Write the structure tokens for this entry.
Amino acid sequence: PFPIYDQLRQSTPVRYDESRSCWDVFRYEDVHRILKDPATFSSKRGMDIRKRENILIMDPPRHTQMRGLVNKAFTPKVVADLAPHITSITNALLDAVLDHGKMDIVSDLAVPLPVIVIAELLGVPTEDRQLFKEWSDILVKGPDENTEEAFNQVVAENAQASEELSAYFARIVEQRRSEPKDDLISLLLAAEIEGQKLNDEEVIAFSILLLAAGNETTTNLIANAVRRLTEDQALQRQLKENPDLIPSFIEEVLRFYPPVQAIGRVATRDVEIGGMQIKAGDQVISWVASANRDEAKFKDPGSFVVDRKPNPHLAFGFGIHFCLGAPLARLEGQIALRTILERLQDIQFVTGSELSYIQSPFVYGVKQYPITFQ
Ligand code: HEM
């Protein structure tokens, strides 16, 4: 998709797409301005019929209150303390495949790692992770083809997965209300906003959001990072020799292959962007994947620069909705890559395998990524 973004950023930096009834915005400066101004560009996306009220689709003042509360669960310290545990999960997943000399990086590592971590944070049994994976896949899935039938099917599957997930979390919430544990759900149940506790629905909605927002995105970050290693063997050797580069490598993967390609907003008033007149009520799609390669912001944006500094990519968004899970996603990505580079030698993509991309305009990642190693 990236050459297409480059082309669109030049030809129609801000355009109205009749077929989708929305604006597309491709330049860094414009995307940045939109994300920075939640009063003009609301997150209450009307189109998002599938999800219940959660912070991702709230505006201030409610967003500010909720975010303040959940931030406590994701402080840098809380996340950093997870490092040894994330490392041991990663090692266990690699142990299972190490003798084979080959693995699918997606299903053997990139999928289970974030699911196990979130399941444990929330305090739900890790045995249920297969269920989690199925539900979260459905929640982020787009229609297979651009037909009304395909769209309706996605909506129906979505509604069912949401129902099942709600019922699942409702049971856990009930258990934790009577018997709190040291987990995120218990913490959310105990928390108060201006003297008011969250109700069950709010805790359930937030739990579902973590699954939907945190799993596939982190899976794709890890898979895209390993993909990069196989695409550039010199880079692979460089990182093996100098693992201190891993954090900046992960940032560059996020810029270069952002798992979330675009972020939606709705204009609350008439406003001009890039010389175009946007009307109150219009949908606006900010193409992060394009902004991340804008030559007006990044030097030599089409090159992968492992130690790029500064690297103000927008892969986690910007402003008040900046990804809550960013420290966790970064940590998981860094640990996964560090462990892979320590334990596997000469990582190669299995030649002849087909690269099949996830069918969604908003998600960037591959469905499988078979590798061999020594
Ligand atoms: C928000 C990307 C991992 C939880 C966002 C947004 C982006 C994003 C672009 C902003 C959306 C907007 O402005 O409308 C990513 C990427 C990830 C990742 C690329 C992995 C590489 C995670 C993880 C979690 C998480 C691991 C949770 C454990 C959230 C939540 C929000 C959010 C709760 C909503 C924040 C708010 O509205 O205030 N993420 N995310 N994300 N993300 Fe992530």
User: Anything to note?
Assistant: Residues 347 and 373 are 5 Å apart (CA to CA).
